[in-house]
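Hi V.,

You were right to ask for the full record rather than a summary. Here it is.
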Amino acid sequence: MELMKQLEVWLLVGSQHLYGATTLKQVADHAHTITNLLNERAGLPIKIVLKPTGTTLDEISRVARDANHGEQCVGLMVWMHTFSPAKMWIPALSQLQKPLLQFHTQFNRDLPWSEIDMDFMNLNQTAHGGREFGFMGARLRLPRTIVVGYWQDEEVHRKIANWMRIAAAIYDSRQMKIARFGDNMRNVAVTEGDKIEAQIKFGYQVNYHPVGDLVSVINAVPEADIEALLAEYEQSYTLTQAVQPGAALRSHLYQAARQELGIKQFLTAGGFSAFTTTFEDLYGMHQLPGLACQRLMQQGFGFAAEGDWKTAALLRTIKVMGHGLPGGSSFMEDYTYHLEAGNKLVLGSHMLEVCPSIAAAKPVLDAQHLGIGNKAAPARLLFAAPAGKAVNASLIDMGNRFRLVVNQLEVVDLPEAMPKLPVASALWRAMPDLETSAEAWILAGAAHHSVFTQSVDIAQLRNFAEIMGIECVVIDEETRIPDFKQALQWNEVYYKICH
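Predicted structure:
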């Protein structure tokens, strides 16, 4: 994802002039050493840019102002190397608009037992300097991420990298443009939502674009580009007999390639990073754009069907958040159940639009009749998701707030082939069990659409929600319905009083 290469995280180290020039030089030298190592060896997705040591209120405030306006800066890391009186940080923290990470580390891993003196103690004061800073964060009620540990440890690197991905996703959200080709599916409730509040809270620009405008772009795609994309399909997938050259449905594959190129051109020209379609508005289109939506998701675009712009936006956010991590993410829907005693499972899928980033093996490319949409048989990729850990996430509008509902899953292999089911799928065991998971999901009001991900975990999504100031409800192995109901009730009170 090219986005990450353009971004920066700023590191500001806190100190003060009390300890003298020699100590401040050591602080600066240590900060340079840490910055260089993290950039070169930690495998971080975003470059760290070190700022001059903050020793006064004005210096610290200037960095915060510059961070707010810095087009490449997605977040601010702070480290209290020495004691840095927190009243100096009030203006900066009060005005900071970017995600904040407090790095609670120490330059020396070990105490020099036989040589430790007061010079060492004055220099290495993270242990209580970080607590002073922490008080001010708590006093100002700031959403912040705290990473504690030695700066050369891999687990510390992993936590910083995950926070960076969340900061990048928030940066991306603030400028996200979502194209709605057609409206929401008629009479469906959960795909609706307050677009004004979404732009205030997340930054989403959600706007309708006539399908006719898109169709005109699709119809103008050059023949040579279509042929080149067909050659890419031949290389990337296993084609069924129906879409082989000269076969009866080959022309349907040709039209699907035209759709992919046209939609991508429209989105790219308009600066859109997410989009929706609906089978109720396909005027002028040859077929429902299943293959096109699948492949555009894999290229990083957010997508959801039936005009579900919130899920489309969430998928884009999770794709940014999961950049560089193993596993994929896709638009998904809880479709049907397997209710065998002791082995209750959910089969997730959609009519066509499941992202091949979650495929366990090389997808099969086919075109088959679809009874919805009243169009030609659409092309689609067929595959199953690999076994392993995953989560489902749903973003909904509760009227007075947005709620993110997250369910822990364990994906399992298909016990048998499904030769008559012409869609991609994922089969999972919902935690803690199907009955509890489904009841909790329904109690929380989560949608039938979701984002399925094997790259982003619950901790990252919870952190994202906290920074964005939205409610997060988790369904996992520890969930019990009485406690879950009570948590929802407490949340209702909290958001009425505090927001």
